[in-house]
TrEMBL record:
Keyword Iron-sulfur set for record: no
A molecular function GO annotation: protein-disulfide reductase activity
Domain annotation Thioredoxin: ranges: 51-169
Region of interest (Disordered), ranges: 52-72
Species for this entry: Desulfocurvibacter africanus PCS
Lineage per the UniProt record: Bacteria, Pseudomonadati, Thermodesulfobacteriota, Desulfovibrionia, Desulfovibrionales
Any GO CC annotation of this UniProt entry: cytosol
Name under which the protein is recorded: Thiol:disulfide interchange protein
Any one of the GO BP annotations: cell redox homeostasis
Highest taxon of source: Bacteria
Biased composition (Polar residues): 59-69
Keywords assigned by UniProt, alphabetized: Membrane, Transmembrane, Transmembrane helix
TM region positions: 24-41
Length: 170
């Protein structure tokens, strides 16, 4: 043991510097390899899970499925029908408060107006499509598909009914 320590102390300083330089090159090589791997993985084509979900899942709706559960976000607003789209999330408290209201309205206006709920936690691209800044957001479309009114936050049944009446739905 004493001999080993003695050899280390007597080792020329240029050998110690070479060891430090060699270690530096090894560390540098590992860092470069990690960066290359990260770049390769980040540029790899990915399956867009959101678009796959959109193709497979129907729009989440409240109540009795006015659109028979077959509507997709691409078919909104419903052609030829006054449409109210409520964009929210199942985890949102005001959205949960609106759920029974939407179910009632959907039954009351069946065949006369489409009342549709889109869960933006599932259909994230719809939040971008409709320019959503807060949830819940209600968007009202006339029968020609033009956006007529937008409201952010909880909306009571009477207010929704008033807008539908303004759009000619009795």
């Amino acid at each position: 043991m004493a001999r080993f320590a003695h050899e280390f102390v007597d080792k020329p300083s240029h050998d110690l510097k070479e060891d430090q330089v060699n270690r530096s090159y090894i560390y540098l090589g590992v860092v470069i390899a990690a960066v290359v791997v990260a770049l390769v993985l980040s540029n790899r084509p990915r399956v867009d899970e959101e678009s796959v979900l959109q193709e497979q899942a129907p729009v989440a709706q409240s109540g009795s499925n006015t659109l028979s559960g077959e509507a997709s976000p691409a078919t909104l607003p419903v052609p030829g029908m006054v449409t109210m789209v409520d964009l929210g999330a199942k985890s949102c408290i005001p959205c949960k408060m609106m759920e029974p209201i939407l179910a009632e309205l959907e039954k009351e206006y069946e065949g006369r107006a489409a009342i549709v709920f889109i869960d933006v936690s599932i259909h994230r691209n719809q939040a971008d499509r409709f320019g959503i800044r807060a949830i819940p957001t209600q968007i009202f479309f006339d029968a020609k598909g033009r956006e007529i009114m937008r409201h952010e936050g909880f909306m009571d049944k009477e207010s929704i009914t008033a807008v539908l009446k303004e759009l000619g739905v009795s």
